[in-house]
């Protein structure tokens, strides 16, 4: 699919995760069908539901596997149904997709290496009571715990 201009992996360690970067990771203007220039634009896109193509762009980036996004964002059958109708994700599903993409970008930024960040997301972590960061992304509270662990890594405190 040609609408995925960048991958989640293309975030340089020194860059912060901006609204525009998140939009690019979801396929940019072409996939989203609108420009995202601010958090207000992103909020509006989430509330109206992101296109199903955004999920495909994230899978195509290689950071997340389809089964992981099916567990965290939208079940496989629901995604297939929405895709057949050229539909959109619900606002909740859109918000979950943004959350996992944002945290993946933060992991890459904090760790400084794409492959190590991918492994870190999938490996049980003592700072997270032995849970895998990826599994905690199913809730906002869990995502905040992962972000706190990443903050400790960024500040050299380990996680």
Description:
With 159 residues, the chain is mostly helical. The protein has one domain. Helices cover 60% and strands 0% of the residues. The chain contains ten helices and no strands. Helix 3 crosses helix 7 and helix 7 packs parallel to helix 10. The protein is globular and about 45 Å long.
What is the topology?
Elements: H1 19-25, H2 28-32, H3 39-48, H4 53-61, H5 66-72, H6 76-84, H7 91-111, H8 114-122, H9 133-136, H10 140-154
Q: Find the structural class using helix and strand composition.
A: mainly alpha
Could you state the order of secondary-structure elements as H and E?
HHHHHHHHHH
Low-confidence stretches: 1-15
Q: Termini, distance in Å?
A: 37 Å
- How many structural domains are formed by the residues? 1
Beta fraction of the residues?
Answer: under 5%
Q: Compute the gyration radius: what is it?
A: 15 Å
How much helicity do the residues have?
55-70%
Approximate shape? globular
Contiguous helical run count: 10
Short description:
With 159 residues, this protein is mostly helical. It is built from ten helices and no strands.
Keywords:
159 residues, mainly alpha, 10 helices, globular, disordered N terminus
């Amino acid at each position: 699919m040609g609408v995925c201009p960048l991958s989640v992996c293309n975030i340089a360690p020194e860059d912060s995760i901006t609204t525009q970067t998140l939009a690019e990771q979801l396929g940019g203007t072409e996939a989203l069908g609108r420009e995202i220039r601010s958090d207000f634009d992103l909020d509006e896109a989430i509330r109206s539901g992101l296109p199903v193509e955004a999920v495909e762009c994230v899978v195509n980036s290689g950071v997340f596997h389809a089964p992981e996004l099916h567990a965290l964002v939208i079940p496989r059958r629901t995604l297939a149904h929405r895709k057949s109708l050229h539909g959109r994700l619900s606002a909740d599903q859109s918000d979950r997709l943004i959350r996992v993409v944002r945290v993946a970008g933060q992991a890459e930024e904090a760790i400084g290496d794409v492959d190590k960040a991918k492994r870190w997301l999938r490996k049980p972590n003592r700072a997270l009571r032995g849970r895998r960061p990826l599994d905690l992304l199913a809730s906002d509270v869990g995502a905040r715990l992962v972000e706190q662990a990443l903050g400790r890594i960024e500040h050299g405190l380990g996680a």
